[in-house]
Amino acid sequence: MKKIFIFILLMGLVGVFSTSEAQQKAKPGEFKYEDPIGVVKIKKGEPIHIACWFVIAGPDASLGTDTKRGVEIAVDDKGGKLLGHPIKLSFQDSGCNAEGGQAAATKIAADPTVVAAIGSNCSSEAKPGAPILWKAGIPTVSPSNTAPFLTDPKRGPEYDGYLRTAHNDKVQGAVAAEFAIKQLKLKKAATIHDGSPYAEQLAAVFAETFKKLGGTITAQEAVAPTDTDMRPVLTRIATGKPEIIYYPIFIAAGGHITRQAKEVKGLEKVVLMSADGTFSPDFIKASGEAAIGMYHSSPDFSAFGAGYKAFLEKHQKKYGEKPIAPFHAHAYDAAMMVFAAIEKVAKRAPDGTLYIGRKALRDALYATKNFKGLTGNLTCTETGDCADPMIAIYQMTAENVKKLVTPDKPIWSPAMAVAKEPPKKK
How many domains does the chain have? Predict the structure, then answer.
């Protein structure tokens, strides 16, 4: 009896598995769409859901607001629809820190309606967040992450769903150092970072390039993003007698350094330079008149595509002001890149349902080549660097500080430097 019972049980299990397998196969005439990771099904009339994870609150909120607006204008330019479906945008606050990035990505990953993500703003958010999204099969395109490790060949397969339209700081740090050495003729520099991947790696690239070009790094210091009294760090830096301090950090700490630097004995005439993380009106508010004359490395807006002028006009009309941070155009390009990839891989069933394969979408994003964006022609590398990286140097004037606006035009860029070089003799 025992053997008969086991035989019957096994036959029953075989029947269950056979039925399950048969259910998975498409019936004659039924639409079939397969993807090794998964498929998003969007019924007729339902929206295509794009999730954004940006900085919504806190001292760096201007970075999130700026990129949010870039995405919204991209949606406007598509008429609010994609493949006949409304485009739905949702937003999670990623906080410009690792904890916020992890929390935002976890919420997005839990929503099966999300087709793709745009974000994050800060590299510290992307480090824990991007792997969470990709584990759920959701690719993400960042408009403003710039830390080199995010697209490093050794980053690991957990980042296979990550791309960016922002530049790699291997470019920005090198341009800043080149400007200090070649244009300002300075030979001694100090750096300050805040422990974030963005700041630490950007400061390191600057220091490495500065030394390669013949300069000396007198100090490489660190502060916490929440520090307010920068005098102890600045006093240590002053002992090395640097001619320039490069501090590619964020708004709150950057404002304190800017206000306090010239008050420290030995730094009265030191040149101050920051980067795109502080290139905003909020930083000018935080720094006051101490920002006059300082330099910033940031994207070269003067080198953007022909469509950028029209974008600025739309921005002014929609929001009543100029862009408030550097990555609005990169966000627009990220959104348009995502839309183009969806259009490429989506398949429609006879009943009107739209099918989007998750791996197919990721592969289409990585296959982006010569995409005409506002920031240039975008071509993605095998590790997700898609930017046409053009960096320039800007200088804050008294007028900028008075009106609380960042400079429109750069004072120097590698391209400008090459154009000024005398022709070589044959």
Answer: 2
Are 174 and 151 members of one domain? no
Q: Using one digit for the tens of pLDDT, what is the confidence trace for 99-134?
A: 999 999 999 999 999 999 999 999 999 999 999 999
What distance lies between CA 4 and its chain's CA centroid? 64
Among the listed residues 246, 260, 252, the one whose alpha carbon sits nearest the alpha carbon of residue 280: 252
Looking at the fold, whether 155 and 109 belong to one and the same domain comes out as yes
- The token pair at 364 is 């289409």
- Percent of the chain residues past pLDDT 70, beyond the cut: 92
HSE (CB half, 13 Å, CA atoms) of 55?
26
Cβ atoms of 326 and 319 closer than 8 Å: no
Residue 51 CA to its chain's centroid (Å): 15
290: left (phi over 0), alpha (psi -120 to 50) or beta: alpha
CA distances from 390 to 51, 210, 249, 312, 338 (A): 27, 19, 20, 19, 22
pLDDT of residue 30: 66
Is there a contact between 387 and 326 (Cβ–Cβ < 8 Å)?
no
Please enumerate in sequence order all residues whose Cβ is within 8 A of that of 246, keeping only pairs 6 or more positions apart, or say none.
176, 177, 180, 189, 190, 191, 192, 203, 206, 273, 274, 275
Q: How many residues does the chain have?
A: 426
The DSSP 8-state label assigned to residue 167 in this structure reads: P
Q: Please, where are the H alpha helices in 51-97?
A: 61-77
**Count of CA atoms in the C-beta half-sphere (13 A) of 124:** 20
Domain of residue 201, residue span: 170-301+391-416
| Same-domain status, 179 and 249 | yes
* Measured distance CA(149)–CA(147) in Å, rounded: 6
Does one domain contain both 218 and 293? yes
Which value, to the nearest 10 degrees, does the dihedral of the CA atoms of residues 353, 359, 365, 367 take? -120
Per residue in 378-408, pLDDT (tens digit) is 999 999 999 999 999 999 999 999 999 999 9
In one letter, which amino acid is 43? K
Listed residue (121, 145, 117) closest to 66, CA to CA: 121
Q: Rounded to whole angstroms, how far apart are CA atoms 217 and 257?
A: 19
pTM of the model: 0.91
CATH of the domain at 233: 3.40.50.2300
Residues 232 and 334 in one domain: no
In 3D, which of 109, 50, 111, 53 has the Cα closest to residue 81? 50
